[in-house]
Specification:
Blueprint lengths: L2 H109 L41 E3 L6 E3 L1
Antiparallel strand pairs: 1-2
Length: 165
Amino acid sequence: MDTSTVVWIVIAVAVIALLVVVAMMANKKKQERNRAQAAELRDKAADKATELQRREAMAKETEAKAAAARAEAERKAAEAQRLEAEAQDRANMAAQHREEHQEHLRKADALDPDVKHAAPTTAPEGSHAGTTDGHTADTHGTHAAEPHETQRIETTEQSGGSHRA
């Protein structure tokens, strides 16, 4: 081997060594960049995790409010059912009392020799029981007149019936 070949071999080895060193340094820089980028991504993920926890907490809070509203609506529905049942019971009791009242009036009319017509039967709700011309026959809760009062029976041709004055 002559000296020029040896020089070329040394230059080639030096160039290869230089390329290896440059490649290693580039690789090291790339790793540093990757580490920095990974750290940045982790920081962003940590920030997003906090935001995610906040949003999840808001979602749970809203869900709890919805459950409370649903429970309140169910409570109010149950209360409405209870009140409807109570109203029905009271309406039934009122109808029963109305029928008893009408029965008492019929008995009183049957006993009273001055009455020329029977007491009306139970009137439908909203109408005036004991009326023949739209005026109530009893305004004080008693059907027959007191013994010291005079009682007068009038016949009206328009209404076709009679009423107490």
